[in-house]
Amino acid sequence: MFREIKRQIALFSTSTLVVFLVVFVSAIVFFMNWSLRYSGEIYLFDTANSLISRNTFSESIGDDRFNIVRTDYDQTGYDYIKWNSNDMIVENKVSQEGLIVKGYKNLQNHRNYKGYENFELNGISYRMYQTDYTKEGNTYTLQVFQNTSAEKSLMAKTVSFLIVIGAAGAIVLFPISYLIAGKNLQPIKTSYEAQKKFVADASHELRTPLAVIQSNLDVLEFKEDETIKENAQWLNNIGNEAQTMGKLIGNLLLIAQADNQQIVLEKTEFDLSELCRELVALMHSIALENGVVIQTTLPDEVIYCGDREQIKQALRILIDNAIKYSNGQGTVTITLCETKSSISVSVQDEGIGMSEEARQKIFDRFYRVDDARHREKGGFGLGLNIADAIVKMHKGKIHVTSELNVGSTFTMTLPK
Ligand code: ADP
To answer: How confident is the model at residue 80 (pLDDT cuts 50, 70, 90)?
Structure first.
């Protein structure tokens, strides 16, 4: 799927470049054409004016100075023919005889005409200016020719050069934009893969309690005649699994909301110290059940502005984990510290700890260090991810230090 998107993006940017080049080349060609024609016409006009104003030679026909068709003529200059009112040449300077024929035809076709014309003659391009004028009572027609072959060739070379550059650019651009598209799509790809994995993991987690519920219902089907009391065990199992599913679905919902930035923080000022005491009281019995002692170092009145319920949930996850992974012994120490710019709460346990490799992954969704054993402890591998998301929403971070079989310390730092 991503390969196709990358190909399409590359194709789109390449075709955009090609369209841009076509417009650019056309604009350049148009401008060059216009500017060459304009300067050429001015040149012919000025030349014609200077030819008209200069003193002409004698006009007598037969004087070989005036009827010589010059073939050794310098190609870069101009050619001209002056006709009298009897269509006789009175003066000329032409590089090829064909110009006389062309000039004569033009004279016949366009009487009293003043203007420019472009034409080809024996492979040479010309621009011609024709004008009538009167001098000393006589009417003449003057035709001035400019060889524009060099102009044409310059234009053709420029166009081919731009086309070659454009084509080479398009050929080079396609793989480059393919690579760039790949790089730009990488974060989307990563998040798409993560989303896919999340859905797969969530379905997998939901399948286990569903299977337990189904098997307990299957058992109950054969005990139609027995009382509810007699089947309390199966019903309890169903109830527990339904509770597990409810908890998981709640967590999934929270993660989805955090992902979509749909969680609106209800910020209030509250005493974090008092919140910690409240949590210790709440978890006292669970700690006792697990053979763990909770110790606290809490200064009086540590006021923080944030979403109390969310912070409570994050702290509860950390304390809950500390108790769960204490291996039925030891002390869990909760320490609250306040500095000028931040407040930090650390939850330290003397439990199973974790390896460096595991420490890097514990915030990943559905990650459990010891998958089977930690699932038994009722964990989905979502708690730390949720705690992290909550702390991040408060612009804070969670730092972890841990040593295998010695214990772990989770420190939540919240900026003031
Ligand atoms: P769970 O609900 O499974 O506890 P968490 O996201 O809270 O999910 O934790 C992820 C994993 O990190 C746990 O399964 C456990 O392996 C490890 N872990 C979390 N807290 C601790 C701790 N205090 N000591 C040791 N391991 C921990």
So the answer is: very high
Distance 370 CA to ligand 1 centre (A): 9
Around Cβ 360, how many Cβ atoms within 10 Å?
Answer: 12
Q: What is the pLDDT of residue 193?
A: 87
Report phi then psi at 394, rounded to 5.
-95, 15
CA of residue 5 relative to chain centroid, distance: 12
In a domain, 349, yes or no: yes
Enclosing domain of residue 342: 267-415
Looking only at Cα atoms, what is the longest distance across the chain? Answer: 141
User: pLDDT tens across 43-58, in order?
Assistant: 999 999 988 887 654 3
Give the residue from 147, 179, 210 where a domain finishes: 147
Is residue 66 one of the residues assigned to a domain? yes
d(CA 350, CA 331) in angstroms, rounded, equals 6
The CA-based angle 168-173-179, given to 5 degrees, is 150
**Residue ID of nearest Cα to ligand 1 atom 19:** 321
Give the chain's domain count. Answer: 2
For ligand 1, residues with CB inside 6 Å are 317, 321-322, 325, 349, 351-354, 362, 367-369, 374, 379-385, 408
Q: For residue 157, how far is its CA from the centre of ligand 1 (angstroms)?
A: 72
Q: pTM score, two decimals?
A: 0.63
Residue 295's pLDDT is 95
Q: pLDDT, tens digit, for every residue of 360-372? A: 999 998 888 876 6
CA distance linking residue 95 with residue 123, whole number of Å: 13
Domain assignment of residue 166, yes or no: no
Domain holding 397: CATH number?
3.30.565.10
**Which residue has the CA at smallest separation from atom 14 of ligand 1?**
368
pLDDT in tens, 217-238: 999 988 888 888 888 999 999 9
- Residue at a domain's end among 147, 169, 200: 147
